[in-house]
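Lab manual, section 2.4: Encoding a predicted structure.

Procedure: take the sequence of the chain (168 residues), apply the prediction step described in section 2.3, and record the output as structure tokens. A sample record is shown.
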Amino acid sequence: MSTATNTKTHMPEIEGVKPEVVVMAEAIKADMKLDAKTGNVEVRKDLYESLLPEGLDKKTVQLVQDHNTLFVAAAGLALGEVAIPAMKKNKDLDRATVSIAATGKDAFNLNFDRSRQVPDRNAEGGAGTRTKYGSLGAEFAFYGSKSRGQMNKIKEHLGAKAADAFGS
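Recorded output:
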């Protein structure tokens, strides 16, 4: 993975990484304050908002996030309402899953389990497990957060950089 510097913008160029990703990373990096003892990194509260592209504002993003919060709850309710009768009829059916496309390649992924073991703390402070019936799980899967596309190029770049810094 090679890194060069663009002589016009003085920004690093990373092979396969879009220039706008590099520019945004530089802005985020400039805002980061790392505690060398704990490894915790602080950024200002409005960092995300300050980097929204033109035409997209905090209010619009908040409306979308509010909708997503309600949508995933509604999808979970619907999945459970469909799964419970099916599981009651079919004793071998232990899990129902659904993936609902959002935008682009992103998706809401939900699962409903007949039962699962969960931690159970007793009054004496001991820990055990108990069976919880009707367990619902949900996630919003960002396509770009996996090892593909721009994120894959970033992982490759940082892996090579870390190997140079720490490896033998």
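Check your result against the sample. The longest strand covers residues 107-121.
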